[in-house]
Amino acid sequence: MSTFDAEVVVIGTGTVGGFVARELVRAGIDVIAIDKDAPAHENSSHGGQTRMFRTAYREGAQYVPLLRRARALWLRLQDELGVTLFVPSGALLVGHRDADSTAETLRSAHAHDLPARQLDIDEARNRWPFITIRDDDVAVLDEAAGVLCADAAVTLVAADAKARGACLRTGVTATRVDDDGLGVSVTLDDHTSIRARTAVVSAGTGTAALLPALHPWVRTECLLLTWWIPSRQTHRFDASRFPMVLRSGHDAYCAWPTDDHATVKIARSGSYLTIREGQPMPDAVPHEWITLARDVIHRNVADLAPNPVRANAYGEVFSRDHRFVLGRYPPSPNIVVATGFSGHGFKFAPVIGAVVAGIVTNDPAADGVFPRGGLREVLTT
């Protein structure tokens, strides 16, 4: 008789955990997935309804083949679930002509023959007169980009994993993960435990607390999303007319059309606060954060009301080199870690789910799929 409650326990059902659980259960593997919250909630790294998908990638041309794979998987997933999860909108990518991020955006587009083209500055200004485009900017239109319905995706993927046989438990928190060489024991805050052959830890901002060797390599940053009502011509920000906008460099921000047809979502890029170990997320968004975001946004987007109608802070785990931390946890080979998505992981979620499931099952095809940087010292020692 087996001493395991399941073959695999997945800790965290958010950006990655639900996708991992779904992949594993589809492969016939017995899975228990746990989370302290419902699969989609406001303070998660995917919170705020939607996320951006783009292919002309300033983070590096090496990601483009994975983005193509991810886009195909998103489209297949929405067909399987019968719900729209990817809304084509295009993306306007703007940055100083001499910036490294601009050069990498153009390099990724040219190297992979993407449906992205550099616009004449006057053409861009005429099409989107309410977006500030400076004389020394470069504007690139990424025609394969789109809006991902993040909250819907996370909720529905977890529900589909459950419908396929995974045991999904919410409202419980993992407080400890122990590997005795034969398997893992996960202690929960309700004084129960789960015994499994393998644990996948993708608990967002709680991952490093469970796996202390990660502390030197990852950090939690507090980011801010804001929602704005246009002061006039609301239709300008409709998804059929308004692409996502991503400005890099000085005054960096990103903007999305929303599905309520009344607001536009805008995030000033950059962290507002580094969350130290044991420090909670702010209960409310500080006024000075709103002021900082408002100043950047009003310099770059016209025809908005003076103040946002909504603001939401959330935590995002960053790695030292902004590359993902995916692999077996060095001190404990029966533990697989998935974290450090550094503000650009959600678009890859279906691919990450497949890769992590492959690591669990020792599939050689899962090795080296994503670029690895300085974190190899953690994941290979």
Number of domains: 2
Please identify the top-level CATH class of the largest domain: Alpha Beta
Largest beta-sheet details: 9 strands, mixed
Low confidence ranges = 373-381
Total strand count, please? 20
Kindly estimate the percentage of residues that lie in beta strands according to DSSP. Answer: 25-35%
Oligomeric state: single chain
Given the C-alpha coordinates, what overall shape results?
globular
Please describe what this structure looks like:
- The two termini are 34 Å apart.
- This protein is α+β, with helices and mostly antiparallel strands.
- It has helices spanning 17-26, 64-81, 100-111, 121-127, 150-163, 207-210, 287-300, 349-360, 376-380, and strands at 6-11, 31-35, 50-53, 86-88, 91-96, 116-119, 137-142, 146-149, 167-170, 174-179, 184-188, 193-201, 218-228, 244-247, 253-257, 264-268, 273-275, 310-319, 325-329, 332-339.
- The strands form three sheets. Strands 5, 6, 7, 13, 14, 15, 16, 17 and 18 form a nine-stranded mixed beta sheet that branches.
- It has two domains: 6-45 and 151-212 and 321-380, 3-Layer(bba) Sandwich (FAD/NAD(P)-binding domain), CATH 3.50.50; 87-147 and 219-319, D-Amino Acid Oxidase, Chain A, domain 2, CATH 3.30.9.
